[in-house]
Amino acid sequence: MPKETIRGEAMPIDIVVQWGAAEDHVQVASTHRGPETLPADAGGWYATFCDRRSINRMIAVLRRARDHSFGKDE
């Protein structure tokens, strides 16, 4: 399964996205890197998206959050 990692900047937590042409899903997960101790409420998580509509919804929400926080792309 191919995967890409998006490194976190504020904490030692990365986001990993995995998918594959032969797979029928996309997985998104948080992973901890480094020896640092994390707060108790910073537990890891993952999500599995089994259809295009669900992953498109997540992308739309992320775009809306980005635009609200940092402004729209020119």
What does this structure look like?
With 74 residues, the protein is an alpha+beta fold. The mean pLDDT is 87. It is globular. The longest helix has 19 residues, at 52-70. It is built from one helix and four strands. The chain has one domain (3-70). A hairpin with a 6-residue loop joins strand 1 (3-6) and strand 2 (13-18).
Give a quick rundown of the structure:
With 74 residues, the protein is α+β, with helices and mostly antiparallel strands. It contains one helix and four strands.
Core attributes:
74 residues; alpha+beta; 1 helix; 4 strands; 28% strand
Please describe the topology of this protein.
Layout: E1 3-6, E2 13-18, E3 26-32, E4 46-49, H1 52-70
The topology string of helices and strands comes to: EEEEH
What is the total domain count?
1
- Give the biggest sheet: 4 strands, antiparallel
Question: What is the average of the pLDDT values?
Answer: 87
Helix content: 25-40%
Radius of gyration: 14 Å
How are the strands of the biggest sheet laid out side by side? 1-2-3-4
**Structural class, please?**
alpha+beta
How many helical elements? 1
Give the total of beta strands: 4
Note poorly predicted spans.
Answer: none
* Percentage of residues in strands: 25-35%
**Beginning-to-end CA distance, first to last residue:** 34 Å
- Characterize the overall form: globular
